[in-house]
Amino acid sequence: MHELAVTEEILNLVVSEAEKSNATKVKHVKLVIGEMTGIVNESVSFYFNEISKSTIAEGAVLSFRRIPAAGRCRDCGHEFEVKDFVWACPQCGSLNIDIKAGKELYLESIEVI
Amino acid sequence: MEIKVLKPILGANDQRAEENRGLLEKNKIVAINFTASPGAGKTSLLMATIKALREEFRIGVVEGDVSSAIDAETVSKEGIPVVQINTGGACHLDATMLSNALANLPVDDLDVLLIENVGNLICPASFALGEHRKVLVASVPEGHDKPHKYPVMFSESDAVVLNKIDLQPYVDFDRDKFYSAVNGLREGAIIFPVSCKTGEGIDRWVSWLSEQIRSEQRA
After folding, report:
1. Which value does ipTM take for this structure?
2. Which end of chain A is more exposed for a tag (fewer CB within 10 A), N or C?
3. Is the CATH number of domain A3-112 3.30.1360.120?
4. B44 lies in a domain?
5. Contact present, A87 and B151 (Cβ < 8 Å)
6. Contact in structure between A12 and A52 (CB atoms under 8 Å)
7. Does residue B3 belong to any structural domain of this protein?
8. Nearest CA in chain B to A73
9. Is B151 buried (19+), middle (13-18) or exposed (0-12) by CB count in 10 A?
């Protein structure tokens, strides 16, 4: 939903990291995205292709590692993957769940020449 | 050559949010970020809150909308300093927008800043502003299943205002289910059932909010 704003930040970060190592071209960008951020891979790639034109990241290939949503039950301690937005413990049925994973949004690495 | 980066994508926004927080604290302003889906009643709640707190605190408002200045005009009629941010399509406020808004507010003469985020329960969760408290405004006609559909926003909100309780007789809203879902996602979240239309419950909400403001002022 908010992919353009996020992709602008990705591009800024990619370009500044590439320039720090005196790269002339960015070939590959590896991103880590949690399922709960609502970010759609295809949308990020689409915007990235557009806004990276005439930067050193133009033509770079984006790859995505998705992190599933995970919760931890505050009543029985069970940790589990959250599927289809069901926020209930599959072991004891409790609704008291802390979000343990799925909010990730970071740049893992870039490949440059 | 592969370069390991391992940096948050919204790190630059987080940094600017920290700067906003510094500016707010230097001027002893307590900032509250209101999020909600469109039509939950954020502006109505803001107006009721302003009415109740304006004797005790000097209040400023930031209105975030995709377009139009309707909400800012409503606030401005009350003689409250207000800055309208039109995000021009973006579905959330970010820290840079708030920083620009602060530059256009009389920060020397404010105790409290009420920030009305863009109506949306997804994107605003990712963009820190530098606020002291997050308050989510939900409403009875939206249904009791909202917390499980927007878990991140609910899990990060300090309080939830449940508006439009006067409509309860007309809709299938299960208040117990809503309460358990909210408390399940955020341990200790406080829920304020209110009706901005009838005024029911507003007293309890504003007394909690003023206590939060005073405790931040003492900090």
Report:
1. 0.90
2. C
3. no
4. yes
5. yes
6. no
7. no
8. B184
9. buried
Which one-letter amino acid corresponds to residue B20?
N
Q: Where are the domains of chain A?
A: 3-112
**CATH code at B182?**
3.40.50.300
Asked if B151's CB is within 8 angstroms of A36's CB, the reply is: yes
User: How many other CB atoms sit within 10 Å of the CB of residue A14?
Assistant: 25
Q: How many helices (H) and strands (E) does chain B have?
A: 8, 8
How many structural domains comprise chain B? Answer: 1
Smallest Cα distance from B80 to chain A, Å: 31
pLDDT in tens, B42-79: 999 999 999 999 999 999 999 998 777 888 888 889 99
**Residues B73-87: pLDDT tens digits?**
888 899 999 999 988
Q: Within an 8 Å CB–CB cutoff, is residue A70 touching chain B?
A: no
CB neighbour class for A55 (10 Å; exposed up to 12, middle 13-18, buried from 19): middle
Q: Are B53 and B112 in contact (CB under 8 A)?
A: yes
